[in-house]
Amino acid sequence: xxxxxxILFAIFTTLNFQTENxxxxxxxxxxxxxxxxxxxxxGDAIKAGDxxxxxxxxxxxxxxxxxxxxxxxxxxxxxxxxxxALTVFVKNALIANQQNRLSTRSVAIQSTVKHLxxxxxxxxxxxxxxxxxxxxxxxxxxxxxxxxxIARYFINDKEYGKELSATNQTMVLSRTKFELxxxxxxxxxxxxxxxxxxxxxEEDLISTINLRFIVKADLEKEFVTIINKFDDGRISKSxxxxxxxxxxxEFYGKTDEFYLNQYISQLIIDNTNE
Length: 274
Fold this sequence. Notes:
Elements: H1 2-19, E1 21-28, E2 31-33, E3 38-39, E4 45-47, E5 51-54, E6 60-65, E7 70-74, E8 87-89, H2 90-93, E9 94-96, H3 116-120, E10 124-128, E11 131-135, E12 147-155, E13 158-163, E14 165-166, E15 170-174, H4 175-178, E16 186-197, E17 202-214, H5 216-230, H6 237-251, H7 257-271
Parallel strand pairs: 10-17
Antiparallel strand pairs: 1-4, 1-6, 2-3, 2-5, 5-8, 6-7, 7-9, 11-15, 12-13, 12-16, 14-15, 16-17
Helix pairs in contact: 5-7, 6-7
């Protein structure tokens, strides 16, 4: 009886895997779905048995399954190219996210930042839109008493140094300040953030990050695609919010948590029936 149960469970799991939909949230590069005879686009539903052809090996797609699992679709490194054809089934191209569970933390409280090292982290930090204004602690970063927050980075072998501190004990991250274009996603690697004692001409490294400026309209399309797919009356608004927060954190990285939560909450209000 136990053997039969195991076999039935395996059959059920396989059938469920084969019939589960994977919804395309974002694409990079061209991926052609030979099963449906069309390129993957945002909002498409694909299945494990669909056959994909990658026009570039670094093309990828971000997808979310019916069960709200989050995956990246990429051409597998383990599969050798055959006569230049990058063709593979969806099931063989799925890479499960390492944190593929819903977070219980989808609420953030606005507060003055005391520790910029933990606020920024040491990997990717994202600004949604063109500008982010952050209130920083007067005790830890006393701007009015001769301290400053400095960013140093290189673009095309040219070195830049920018003061991030602003009035009212704030720090500003903006495309204008970093001299970046405003019409596309921009990714600046190895940005060193320093706390500077201007009077003593001394600097202490706070963190080194990769700074990304995201086009807000593009991100909104990704979020609304997710909302439209999963706002079916069977998922609570709080779980929907958690899904969106987790999607951002896992596929993009850190950002200002309070702003992200407020932004997502408003999108849910604007794009659902309640």
